[in-house]
Design brief:
The protein has 3 helices and 22 strands. By secondary structure, it is mostly beta strands. The strands form 2 sheets. It has an 18-stranded antiparallel barrel. A 3-stranded mixed beta sheet has the order 9-13-12, with no helix packed on it.
Length: 423
């Protein structure tokens, strides 16, 4: 709350009318969605995002604010209890929220680049799912239908990057912000806890609060070696998804949402060979927690996890991108009672095509789980009406059994219409 108020005051002092040194740009977006399975409107959302940039003496200040309001209420109102007190938006109602999206300052000091403040740090580049992109938590108000840039939750952190040799760089992250994934509220169309609530379970959160002892720390080494962009990553952090431990207390059954520490060791590599780009990410998570039935009361069990993604991008046709990705997740200590397979495989297919001097674009991505035979298809047709106006039509389609990751939202298929004005 305090950072938002201080930021608003600072922006009022340094607004474009008060100083020519402040640059401002923004976008106003309206998106409407209709649920084809439930035969009703699902979304009627207006979003205003403003970005302020101010060049200081040897530094550069960036501030981004967002106002989001929905006239229907089937998607907004996701729980903020997983956010730190300094990272919560101002809620005027269940369907309207103002938030300080980002606020950071960039400067050079001691032969290093520093970024201090509320920000996003992107480590992974995979489409649709994440392997290394784990620094920032995610808002699941619309499951994984939002673009990652919009659904990532910026965190208050310190990021320092220093060159090492001719082409390498070393990045250090210190993240005292104890904010985690933002899950949907009860009765939301994309409620990830709907099954637990249907069983009458009550969720109780036990969130870390220590500014120093509960901080996350990250280290990333990147280099360009014989045509390959490579990185080595380490992140010591709390899992952004809480472990859901079921406990009986008298006649009531509770879910204790407990956050647990994890070590993420990872690596990435990419290289272009003519029209083909090869990409790979590999991650080892030391402590992942999964639901198990091998107890008198259903609980969780721990296992380390090996996750990876291998991608091939092809630009063989003019203004066209074809991409295939293979995601794999393997539990290294699999328990027979765990509610998932030891190894899970997911394929993604992406087509991105531009027409008429890039004024028309079509993008479609398919995520398909090989194990459960469920998945998601997302398609968008966008028209650039003028330099600052875009109009688009889209459709999101889920398939599979209701007990599976994507199949649980089989009744949330929808068509969309959107309009964006940039200024």
């Amino acid at each position: 709350m305090k950072p938002i108020i201080l930021t608003l005051a600072a922006l009022c002092v340094s607004c474009p009318f008060a100083s020519n040194a402040v640059d401002m740009n923004g976008r106003l977006e309206w998106e409407w969605a209709y649920s084809t399975a439930q035969h009703r409107q699902q979304k009627n959302q207006l979003q205003l995002e403003l970005e302020f940039n101010h060049e200081l003496d040897g530094a550069y200040l960036t501030a981004i604010t967002r106002l989001k309001a929905d006239g229907l209420g089937y998607l907004l109102g996701s729980e903020q209890s997983s956010q730190s007190q300094f990272n919560r938006g101002l809620e005027w109602s269940d369907n309207a929220e103002f938030s300080l999206r980002e606020l950071y300052i960039d400067f050079d000091l001691i032969q290093a680049q520093w970024r201090v403040g509320k920000q996003q740090q992107v480590w992974g580049q995979a489409d649709g799912l994440k392997v290394l992109d784990r620094v920032n938590p995610q808002d699941f108000s619309e499951f994984i239908l939002d673009e990652f840039e919009d659904s990532r939750i910026p965190l208050w952190m310190l990021a320092v990057e220093t060159p090492v040799g001719e082409s390498a760089a070393l990045q250090l992250l210190w993240i005292p912000d104890t904010s985690y994934h933002r899950l949907t509220a009860q009765d939301s169309d994309f409620d990830l806890l709907a099954k637990a609530r249907e069983q009458g379970l009550v969720l109780r959160s036990q969130k870390p609060k220590g500014l120093v002892k509960d901080s996350d720390v990250g280290l990333r080494y990147s280099d360009f070696i014989k045509g390959w962009d490579v990185s080595l990553n380490y992140l010591y952090h709390y899992n952004d998804f809480p472990s859901q431990v079921v406990r009986q207390h008298g006649e009531e059954t509770f879910i204790d949402a407990r956050y647990d520490r994890n070590h993420l060791l990872g690596a990435s590599a990419s290289n272009a060979f003519g029209d083909i780009t090869l990409r790979a990410e590999l991650g080892v998570n030391s402590h992942q927690y999964y639901a198990t039935q091998n107890q008198a009361v259903p609980g969780v069990t721990k296992s380390s996890e090996l996750s990876s993604v291998f991608g091939v991008d092809w630009h063989g046709f003019s203004d066209t991108l074809l991409s295939v990705q293979w995601f794999q997740s393997t539990l290294l200590e699999h328990d027979s009672g765990i509610h998932r397979d030891k190894t899970e495989n997911t394929l993604s297919f992406l087509l991105d095509r531009k027409f008429s001097n890039e004024t028309i674009s079509f993008r479609s991505i398919v995520l398909h789980s090989i194990n459960q035979a469920d998945g998601l298809v997302r398609s968008t047709l966008k028209f650039n009406v003028s330099n600052n106006i875009d109009v688009w039509f889209g459709a999101d389609f889920f398939y599979g059994d209701e007990g599976d990751l994507y199949g649980q939202f089989d009744q949330q298929d929808r068509v969309l219409f959107g309009l964006e004005l940039g200024f």
